[in-house]
Amino acid sequence: MPLKKSELRIDTIHDRAVIVAPRRGLRPHDIAETTVPVRQGTCPFCKELLRKNPILARSGSGKNTIQAIANGFPAVSLDNPKAYGKQEVLIETPIHNVEFAELSAKQIDHALAMYQQRTRAISKNAKIEYILIFKNNGGKAGATLVHAHSQIFATGFVPPHIAQKLANVKQYEIVHGTCYYCDLIAKEKRGPRRIIATPHVTAFSPYVSHYPYEAWIFPTRHLDNITQLRPVERRAFAVAIRHILGKLNTINVPYNYYLHQTLTDNDEHFYLRVAPREQTWGGVEVGSRLVINQVAPEDAAKFYRK
Questions:
Q1: Starting at the edge strand that comes first in sequence, how are the strands of the sheet with 291-293 ordered?
Q2: Is 3 exposed, middle or buried (0-12, 13-18, 19+ CB in 10 A)?
Q3: Taking the CA atoms of the chain, what radius of gyration do you get in angstroms?
Q4: Is pLDDT of 281 > 80?
Q5: pLDDT tens-digit series, residues 90-121
Q6: Cβ 11 vs Cβ 206: under 8 Å
Q7: 264: which of 37, 163, 192, 236 is 20 to 30 A away, CA to CA?
Q8: What CATH number does domain 10-24+35-305 carry, 3.30.428.10, 3.40.1790.10, 3.10.290.10, 3.30.70.20?
Q9: Mean pLDDT of the region 160-171
Q10: In angstroms, rounded to a whole number, what is the distance separating the alpha carbons of residues 43 and 76?
């Protein structure tokens, strides 16, 4: 049944507290946010200017080419011990003004294969402890260029909230004798927040969703990181990503997606989070860290299942 009254939901594993408040979506708005696209001739990810950047890795050919280059404006670098790390950009298509969700499942699969390749390469550096793969799509999600691309952010430092989440998951395993995420998959794949449930991939809207239409995509098999995906699992993952991002495109919602890998822990159950960014946080969220979500996860899952 649709949620009629606001409801407080708490996730102790991820340190989340959310008030699901569907009626908040009825508030009046008179402020709009827009993104101005860069013209093709001035885009640094188009072939005319891309020639200036050394290519770290390349796969595919023609319109299916995917390339990895160094980030030209890194916040961390291998020659800075005070902010040690490495940043890369993965250009997912040579075609300007094509969104990632508009690519075929096969092209998205190629992008995931590049994520695997670059994760293996970066992981060889013993000083790197944490790798974040992410995408910003749309101005409200932090995107500065429309040309389809994602990024890898790798550091010699594990963010505190990630370390705390891992500790919480380990504590759950000590108490219950099972993986928290495996138990979560078993529960959600049959519940009202299910989006996709196949032998290889499970996707759902989390019970405590920080963002309207938030979705998590898991390999059904317990895997530590993306490099362990088999080709058949990776293809299923690509299909799930394309479905979810394609649905978000139909309502023109900007989004981030991201996945973590902590190299100091070899038994994580990795997954990809899709964080739609239509809703802007205000004083309540910023001041109290208590998020107000105007779309119930159960309704979000229905939207994705249609």
A1: 7-11, 16-20, 291-293
A2: middle
A3: 19
A4: no
A5: 999 988 888 889 999 999 999 999 999 999 99
A6: yes
A7: 236
A8: 3.30.428.10
A9: 95
A10: 23
pLDDT over threshold 70, residue 18: yes
Q: 94 or 183: whose pLDDT is higher?
A: 183
Residues 6+ apart with CB under 8 A from 288: none
CA distance between the termini of the chain: 17
Render the burial of 193-232: b for 16+ CB within 10 Å, e for the rest.
Answer: bbbbeeebbbbbbbbbbbbbbbbbbbbbeebebbeebeee
Nearest to 276 by CA among 220, 194, 185, 213: 213
Overall pTM surpassing 0.85 (yes/no): yes
3-state SS string for 47-109: HHHHCCCCEEEEECCHHHCEEEEECCCCCCECCCCCCEEEEEEEECCCCCCCCHHHCCHHHHH
C-alpha span between 93 and 102 (Å, rounded): 11
* Local structure of residue 265 (DSSP, 8 states): -
**204 token code pair:** 């759902």
Domain map (residue ranges) of the chain? 10-24+35-305
Amino acid residing at 110: H
**CA separation (Å) from 285 to 258, 274, 298?**
21, 19, 22
Residues sharing a CB contact under 8 Å with residue 31, sequence separation 6 or more, in sequence order: none
What band does 89 get if pLDDT is binned at 50, 70 and 90?
very high
